[in-house]
Amino acid sequence: MIAGLKPYAEYSDSCSPWLGQVPAHWRTVRNGSLFGQRSQTGFAQLPILEVSLKTGVQVRAFGSAKRKQVMADLAKYKRAAKGDLVYNTMRMWQGALGVCPVDGLVSPAYVVARPYAGVEPQYFAALFRTGDYMAEIDAASRGIVKDRNRLYWDQFKQMQSPCPPPGEQVAIVRFLDWASGRLERAIRAKRKVIALLTEQKKGIIKQAVTLGLDENVELKSTGIPWLGDIPKHWEVSRVKSEFRCLNTMRAPLNSVERGRMRSRTYDYYGASGAIDKVDDFLFDDELLLIAEDGANLVLRNLPLAIIASGKFWVNNHAHILKPRRGSIRYLAHLLETLNFCPWITGAAQPKLTQDRLLAISIAVPPGEEQMAITAAAELRCQPLNDALARLAREVELLREYRTRIVADVVTGKLDVREAAATLPEAVTAGIEAEPTDEADDSELIDEEATEA
């Protein structure tokens, strides 16, 4: 059905450079004629809503390690009614917006846009998340530094948007729900295979770095629960004996400081790997980074032991370790296999302190054996790595295809009216949001609340 979509029969000029031609029966109008601003406060009994780059607007789940504290005076929070479109003024250019599923409260730093009669908010939410429209939002946003630019209501209401007839807006949303559901199921199926292959790879590496390559080697008991029996000639050591800790050399850079930078040549590392590019570097070396805090210490959705090479910067959310001896690749594999939960402190925000990390006991073979183990394990994992890379590329292509379909449909490049009319009722029933390994971004809700 998707492959059979065709353009509309007639087009006309939208008079908007970024949009170009639109179907002849569509209008191009200001957002102010589609939405009115809602600025109601004093509804402290309503649930708190949050805005996420990935999932739009949802009821806030308290207790997560990544959540920030809500402002004490809920009377200052804005009421958002079911069906209203809410956006984060500072992150709108990244797609931080969505349609409210229920009546609730949002940060006073956010804009609540109430749709007028004949406006399907889900259509416009999809439109506003397209790449071309977000570029227009970025251009219309105002601020001193790009990362702190905001799209205020006065700028939003002046922006131009394509506007299909009301019934066609509904048909477009219906089709996109169906198409997104099919593509999400395909993505999820590939991600399940990725998860299985990743576990198989972890098993191969763990077997090699904890017991070596010789299946007949004589073992000895360490008396340490997480080490168990190890080859007799291996040494029981501690992290601090195998590494120098360079934490005193790390330095955080906030988003404003990074936003002022221009060349952005060097990787900027945090707890989950490289998160940005910056103009300068702190290290020119090959070092091992271990997450110091964050939910990933418990969830393990992303690697915890990361090798950083060359010139780079590290903030204060990652421990920095330099091997005193041996193979950094072996030691990275070894630390990645550890369950750090017994050494983690903090319930709301998991943290692995420097003292606790350095005190962990590990089993270490001789240096030459470390390199042999690493080479053998990585060779055995190469077919898995090839399969994982292929599957990751397929997932990326499916995501790109979904993005292209949405953009073409909401801007009138493809006509879905006939296709939407043939779809069964409740086309999205049972479809869940695509899971992700990326860091959660739903804490965006209150980051600007005190500045409003």
Name a few traits of the molecule:
Adenine-n6-DNA-methyltransferase TaqI, Chain A, domain 2; disordered C terminus; alpha+beta; 452 residues; six-stranded mixed beta sheet; elongated; 11 helices; four-stranded antiparallel beta sheet
Structural account:
The chain contains 11 helices and 22 strands. By secondary structure, it is an alpha+beta fold. The protein has 2 domains: 11-187 and 394-451, DNA methylase specificity domains (Adenine-n6-DNA-methyltransferase TaqI, Chain A, domain 2, Alpha-Beta Complex); 213-364, Adenine-n6-DNA-methyltransferase TaqI, Chain A, domain 2. Strands 16-21-19-20-17-18 form a 6-stranded mixed sheet. Strands 4-11-8-9 form a 4-stranded antiparallel sheet, covered by helices on one side. The protein has a two-stranded antiparallel ribbon with strand order 1-2. The protein is elongated. Mean pLDDT is 90; it is low at 64-68, 428-433 and 435-452.
